[in-house]
Every structure is written in C-alpha cells, then in structure tokens.
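Title: Prediction job returns without error message
Component: structure pipeline
Severity: low
Priority: P3
Assignee: unassigned

Description:
Job completed but the reporter wants confirmation the result is attached to the right record. Sequence as submitted:
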Amino acid sequence: MKRDVMLDFLRGAAIIAVVVCHQQYILHTSEYIQFISIYSVSALIALAGITRYISLSKKLSSKLNINNTVCYLAKAIWGILAPYILVTFICAIIEVGVNSDLPQYFFSRLLTFSASPPFYFVKYYLVLTLLSPLLFFSVNKCMSADKRILKTGLFLMFVWIFSYKSITYFDFFAQSYLFVFVCGLIVGKIYPIKISLSKLLVSISLLCFGTISSYRFYFSLGKEDITYSGIDSWTPLLHLNPPTVSIILYSFGVISVLYCFCTYFKMYDTLGIKIISLLGKYSLDIFLWHFLIRDLLTEYIPTFLYRNTVVFKNILYYFLMFALPVTFRLLYQQLKNRGKTFFEQSKEKIINSGTAEIM
C-alpha cells in the first residue's frame, strides 16, 4: 500500500513532540516546551484512527467477515507486539541481567506494560486496534445512511459518554483516547480533504481556542487546586493523559493547521516535509526505543563530551533517539527480505532437484 506523505508528516510532527516531551530535566527544563508538546499522544491516536480506517476499507468489505477480520487483526496486532516484546526483553536484560530472575521480570513487565514509562500507550493502542473493525463498521453505518450528520453526532456522543464513564470502571477501554480514535476513523472516511482558505482559517481558530483553553489547565497542574474551567469543568476525572477536552481540541487544532497549511501551499516535496515524513513512517519504532536510548546515553556517555556545550548534548541525544530506531527497522527489513529470498531460492532448488530425479 502506497504511503500518504501528509499522514506520515503529521505522525512525524507528533513523534517529535513525544520525544521532546520526554526530555524534561534531561535536555530542557522549560514548562512551555512541555505545554506545546502535549498534543503529541492525542495526535498519534487520531492519526492512528485515520490510517486504520483507510487500511480497513481496503482489507475488509462493507459486510463483516469473521475470517478476514481475524486475519487482519492478527497481522495488525503482531505488527505492534513484535517490536514491543523485543524492546521489553532488552529493557529486562539491562535491568536484571541474564540470570534466573530474567523470565519472571520480563513477563511481569511485558504483561503490565511497565518496562518503560511510555509503554502505557501500547496497551491503549492494542485495545483500539482490537476494537477498530467494530468501530469501522459503526462509522460506516452512521455516515452512509440518511441523516448521517445526526447519526454520526449521536454516535460520537455515545462514544464520549462511554469513554468518560469507563474511567472509573473500565480503564482498559482507553478513556478519552477512544473518542479521539473514533474521531480519527471519521476523518479517515472523508480523507483526503480538499483544503480552502476558509478551512485553514477554521483550523487556526480551533487551534487558538484549544491553546487558550488548555493553557490555564496545564499551568494549574501541581497546585493544590487544579483549575477545571470552561469546557474542562465538565470532565473533572480527566487530566493530561488521557487528555481533557481542551487538550483534545488543542491536539486537533495542531494537526489540522499543519495539514491545511502544508496542503494549501503545496509543500509536499520540500526537504523538511520529507525528513519529518520519514520519522513518521517509523513512529512506532521511535516511540518504543527513544526512552531506552535516552537512559543509556545518560548512564554511559561520558559527561566531559558535552560538559561545556548544551548544544552538542542536544544534537547527540536527539540524533541517536531518532536515527537508531529507524536504523534498527531498516536492518530488520533487510534481514527479513534476504531470509525470504533465501527461503524461496532453496525451495525452488528442492523442487527442481526432485523434478530432475523423477525424469
């Protein structure tokens, strides 16, 4: 399937924000940088919804087919689990070493998604992936029928109420991220979107409203009385992660402005877009590896290398946190392709030799 440059670019912008956000007190101490980057995970979830809808629409028919759905989910889930298991195993080896405690420690961290702080996301991502066929057919049902605007609105309202109520009883269902994911599925239904100046202005307005609304909430964190004002006052059980309403709007504003701006001014072929798109293509790998790479750099890189220059430390850390995961994935793909070629050639030789013996 041909990749969409703009979706990869938006994923790249989101994963950059994730990595930057996780460097507080390591590479920066600014709360303003933290605030700017809080759109990151919500953006990744929304973009996952868009790409999941596009993928499902190509793999599954309009009617539910159990066999096709199970095969699709098995492939999708394994695509998430395989790198997650590998990174968790490496984290376990680093933490306890290769000894009798390793298996128990590894499986404990694997099943609780606790080998690294960002791995909570993997749990939510897996759940949303498992739910995606059901949500996909629900979105199609709502948006393909008469009064689709009303039905889609009611469906979104139901998803929001369910996701909010699940905070107390069913945290497993990803809380407000479920709503964000469904919004992504709905956008995926109408993607790609033709951009006009009016749509760009609407996106900018959404970003401004989301920024102003989430600013007060974010900078009240850590105080004795967290300020749930405006739209956030309706959802006092939500915090930063999973996000409040204002942070969701801010996240939607960021990705919509980036999409509208780059599409309206036709910036697809610029070098910056291509580089960020490359990071977006490997966003899952970067997400899984970057925290471990950061910790290893902090523990093992001699401080005298960057003692007198913060700039060099930032360049070193960020380059390796982005470059190494991409390199690991490219090496894996090369090994996989060579193994597949070797297997096919060996199989062909066996068949040919058997045919020769019969003749």
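Comment from assignee: result matches the submitted record. The chain has a mean pLDDT of 89.
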